[in-house]
């Protein structure tokens, strides 16, 4: 008996003009006109987060069809990575070209959830471009990696407004991917992939040959 073929679903892909039109293509700084480049992207069911070359994070709320903007104080530097998380509160982590990492705890209109925008900073451990960010499912842990091979663990206490960070691993090549689940951090670098067991602080390499 011939198997029945599953139905084919056609999808149309097109530019998100409603999103792109809400982001300026140029800004004026003094007498100079600066082109705005889009440098980082992450999405979930509630938000689309877009990082830019001027240090501005554009956050589009899909439910309300609204665009909001967040930035770092001081120097305007390129955002290199953004990572959203939807748990009890909505969170977005942002990394920059100089190694700054910040977490924004977003405002929610739902009862019992956060009513005031709050920001947490990962203080001064990274000194180079952020290349990867990974959340724990409950939003209490954030891992950040940079292009010099440093991986930083940040413990967040959203109720107390505290963020404590420390260096947990240092690789000889750039971090290209992080993913965290069940006390295990998956780390990919330009040279290898490994599992870092956060409780035991032990490392297990995936495979035996280095990447070429």
TrEMBL record:
Taxonomic source organism: Probosciger aterrimus
Gene: Tecpr2
Name assigned to this protein: TCPR2 protein
Any matching Pfam family: WD40
Family matches, as SUPFAM superfamilies: WD40 repeat-like
SMART domains: WD40 (SM00320)
BP GO annotations: protein exit from endoplasmic reticulum
InterPro entries listed in its UniProt record: WD40/YVTN_repeat-like_dom_sf, WD40_repeat_dom_sf, WD40_rpt
A GO-annotated cellular component: cytoplasm
């Amino acid at each position: 008996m011939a198997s029945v073929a599953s139905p084919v679903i056609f999808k149309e892909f097109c530019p998100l003009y409603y999103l792109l039109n809400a982001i300026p293509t140029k800004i004026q700084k003094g007498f100079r006109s600066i082109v705005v480049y889009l440098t980082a992207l992450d999405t979930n069911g509630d938000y689309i987060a877009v990082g830019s070359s001027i240090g501005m994070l554009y956050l589009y709320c899909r439910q309300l069809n609204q665009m909001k903007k967040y930035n770092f104080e001081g120097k305007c530097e390129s955002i290199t990575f953004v990572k959203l998380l939807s748990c009890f509160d909505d969170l977005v982590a942002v990394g920059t070209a100089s190694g700054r990492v910040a977490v924004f705890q977003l405002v929610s209109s739902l009862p019992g959830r956060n009513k005031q925008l709050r920001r947490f900073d990962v203080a001064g451990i990274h000194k180079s471009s952020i290349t990867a960010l990974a959340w724990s499912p409950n939003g209490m842990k954030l891992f950040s990696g940079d292009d010099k091979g440093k991986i930083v663990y940040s413990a967040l206490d959203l109720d107390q407004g505290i963020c404590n960070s420390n260096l947990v691993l240092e690789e000889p090549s750039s971090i290209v991917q992080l993913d965290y689940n069940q006390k295990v951090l998956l780390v990919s670098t330009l040279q290898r992939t490994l599992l870092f067991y956060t409780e035991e602080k032990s490392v297990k390499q995936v495979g035996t040959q280095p990447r070429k």
